[in-house]
């Protein structure tokens, strides 16, 4: 049962539902099937409602938050910038935070021996917009060379790249995509290297390489028609936290090179330390031609996206013609407040030695995940650094999923909320993606609540 809301919370809830239309929500379900949490403030890894009830933000508020809510150093950087320059048009003008952030991102970006590094930064103001930028750049680059036939994108089955029509076209989550399909550019989908699909006796690496074979065939079949391949390195997050062996990324890089196709790494969710390295591409030792960043870029404080591109890509737009320039823009492109927040975020990575601390947190998360994973309805507990996912099934194996009508994931969500933990399952996949400021005691509590929530949610099955 849900805890009874206090007066303040129910007051805000009523006012909210009178006027707001919430994202990614069937509004009919509020508030009876799906509780609505009015949050008054954030404190580190916790959210606090108007009645003082605390919830552990185990999903980092849609994977954006890195160091906890209301992080003082980020708050101070934003406040300082707001008193100096809150915004300026970035076409024809420049400002220090945009320049400094670009320099530092390029310095930190993945490198690959023998390959020219990422050399230019184009800003946008959210992840989907960043994906649109990368797709348009790749397509336009070939147009500028007179290769008009390269109109297609290759994307992975089960991938996710955002909700705008261009980003949705390269995404493969039917729930989000199906209804808009008539509006979408046609992408070519290839099998995911998702290690969930391993054959009996096969290694995860072999599974990844099997998927890469299908990519090779597809590239061959569409020779000369493809401008870019887009993928989420290491973890397909919105698709259910599906993880793959880095061998796929190495092979995809080779194949894209062999076919003269750009590789776009969408590190919007996996970047900034989520999978153990600063960027997930590093685990494969590869560098992409275009890399999309957002979500954690500002530590979860302000919307911002950055698209990193190679010099060769950039050079393909230098011309006498304005039409051959990349005339894409957003009013808030490179907003100084957001850039200042991103710079503060990079400072914290250095000052707090975040990646090193994350390694020990991830070890603890792995131990705890093994315990939760022993539940009879958990078919798999999997981990990539600071991401852990639990696949709930009826038989506790891969073969028999729960009847979707039971909404086991939603039941687990409610059961965890009752116990002060905010999870937001993807269907029947539960996952942890906590802010990096959690301590071990909080992780222990998270594991206990997750186990209890799974027990309560599956009691009906
Ligand atoms: C969230 C996400 C996006 C879209 O970013 P928004 O800021 O929500 O538009 C794109 N790609 C991936 C991998 C994401 O996880």
Features:
alpha/beta; 461 residues; single chain; 16% strand; adenosylmethionine-8-amino-7-oxononanoate transaminase activity; binds pyridoxal-5'-phosphate; aminotransferase; S-adenosyl-L-methionine
Brief characterization of the structure:
This protein has 461 residues and is α/β, with parallel strands linked by helices.
What would you note in describing this structure?
This protein is α/β, with parallel strands linked by helices and 461 residues long. Helix content is 37%, strand content 16%. It contains 14 helices and 16 strands. A seven-stranded mixed beta sheet has the order 4-12-11-10-7-5-6, sandwiched between helices. The chain has a four-stranded mixed beta sheet with strand order 1-2-3-15. Strands 13-14-16 form a three-stranded antiparallel beta sheet. A hairpin with a 5-residue loop joins strand 8 and strand 9 (242-243). The longest helix has 19 residues, at 354-372. The protein starts with 6 loop residues before the first helix and ends with a helix. Pyridoxal-5'-phosphate binds at residues 126-128, 131, 160-162, 232, 237-238, 266, 268-269, 294-295.
Secondary structure blueprint with pairings:
Blueprint: H1 7-19, E1 39-43, E2 46-49, E3 54-57, H2 60-63, H3 72-84, H4 96-108, E4 118-124, H5 127-144, E5 152-156, H6 165-169, H7 174-177, E6 188-190, H8 204-221, E7 226-231, E8 235-236, E9 242-243, H9 247-258, E10 262-266, E11 290-293, E12 305-310, H10 311-315, H11 336-351, H12 354-372, E13 378-384, E14 387-392, H13 408-418, E15 421-422, E16 429-432, H14 440-458
Parallel strand pairs: 3-15, 5-6, 5-7, 7-10, 10-11
Antiparallel strand pairs: 1-2, 2-3, 4-12, 8-9, 11-12, 13-14, 14-16
Helix pairs in contact: 3-11, 4-11, 8-9, 12-14, 13-14
Subunit structure: Homodimer.
Cofactor: pyridoxal 5'-phosphate
Modified residues (N6-(pyridoxal phosphate)lysine): 295
